[in-house]
């Protein structure tokens, strides 16, 4: 990765395997909006970003260099060698062609609290509606970090709300889950940092104790919000994919099953 600053923009070159559409609009994060020119605008970690791809380079518009290094490098996992990961996964015949076709999927390092709330909201919902609900939530209770762009509200802020407040945002039956989750995280009954520090099986067991958190939400929170790359979420699409692996997942997936899952999920949505 090479970094240079030009007119308040940060230009990053020599970053492999990062397609903005496949990474920011694939259902792992819900705060990114595609612009007409193919760039994206969004908020993460309380920071607004306008990002674009120009050939093999990424352009971070009007971005503070200190914030770039302290936050965005980790968020986009720019120091991880995805070429090495992809070459390893391509030992599997199905992924070999899939990675060639959909090259550029990365897993974002998202905040645990935001990811868990987002996937609670995602239950029985489509991406467009999930984004709309989360946008309302942030506008109503987050802090404005740029013109019309708001941070994700803290558990402490949301813990002051009642079920009816969440219902007013369009969360439906999920309102009661969000109300209890916010209060439990705010008062320390649920410690997401502690859960994140546990081995995968134990972390998942703790998440499944949370009211309104089932298998799918737990797996997504673990993979996308707690960086458990060995977590392999199974939904209806991935259960169909597993028919191609009657003997279980290949050894080349070990430790990076979640990254493999992202490619297989995208392939399944296009082909099954």
UniProtKB/TrEMBL annotation:
Highest taxon of the lineage: Bacteria
GO molecular function: class I DNA-(apurinic or apyrimidinic site) endonuclease activity; damaged DNA binding; oxidized purine nucleobase lesion DNA N-glycosylase activity
Keywords: DNA damage, DNA repair, Glycosidase, Hydrolase, Lyase, Multifunctional enzyme
EC number(s) per entry: 4.2.99.18
Pfam families, alphabetized: HhH-GPD, OGG_N
Family label: Belongs to the type-1 OGG1 family.
Catalytic activity: 2'-deoxyribonucleotide-(2'-deoxyribose 5'-phosphate)-2'-deoxyribonucleotide-DNA = a 3'-end 2'-deoxyribonucleotide-(2,3-dehydro-2,3-deoxyribose 5'-phosphate)-DNA + a 5'-end 5'-phospho-2'-deoxyribonucleoside-DNA + H(+)
Keyword Lyase part of the UniProt annotation: yes
Matches recorded under InterPro entries: DNA_glycosylase, HhH-GPD_domain, HhH_base_excis_C, OGG_N, Oxidative_DNA_repair_enzyme
BP GO terms, sorted: base-excision repair; nucleotide-excision repair
Membrane-spanning segments: none
CDD domains hit by this protein: ENDO3c
Name of the molecule in the record: DNA-(apurinic or apyrimidinic site) lyase
HhH-GPD domain: residues covered: 121-269
Organism: Eubacterium coprostanoligenes
Lineage: Bacteria, Bacillati, Bacillota, Clostridia, Eubacteriales
């Amino acid at each position: 990765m090479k970094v240079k600053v030009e007119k308040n923009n940060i230009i990053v070159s020599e970053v492999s395997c990062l397609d903005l559409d496949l990474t920011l609009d694939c259902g792992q994060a819900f705060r990114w909006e595609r612009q007409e020119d193919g760039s994206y605008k969004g908020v993460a970690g309380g920071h607004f970003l306008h990002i674009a791809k120009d050939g093999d380079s990424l352009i971070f518009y009007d971005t503070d260099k200190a914030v770039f290094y302290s936050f965005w490098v980790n968020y986009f996992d720019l120091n991880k060698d995805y070429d090495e990961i992809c070459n390893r996964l391509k030992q599997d015949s199905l992924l070999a062609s899939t990675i060639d076709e959909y090259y550029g999927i990365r897993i974002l390092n998202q905040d645990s609290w935001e990811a868990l709330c987002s996937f609670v909201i995602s239950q029985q919902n489509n991406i467009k509606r999930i984004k709309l609900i989360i946008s309302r939530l942030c506008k109503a209770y987050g802090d404005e970090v740029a013109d019309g762009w708001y941070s994700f509200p803290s558990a402490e802020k949301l813990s002051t709300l009642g079920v009816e407040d969440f219902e007013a945002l369009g969360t439906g039956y999920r309102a009661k889950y969000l109300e209890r989750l916010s209060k439990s995280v705010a008062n320390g009954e649920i410690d997401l940092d502690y859960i994140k520090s546990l081995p995968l099986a134990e972390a998942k067991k703790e998440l499944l104790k949370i009211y309104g958190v089932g298998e799918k939400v737990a797996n997504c929170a673990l993979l996308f919000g707690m960086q458990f790359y060995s977590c392999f979420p199974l939904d209806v699409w991935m259960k169909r994919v597993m028919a191609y692996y009657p003997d279980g997942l290949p050894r080349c997936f070990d430790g990076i099953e979640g990254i493999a899952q992202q490619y297989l999920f995208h392939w399944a949505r296009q082909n099954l």
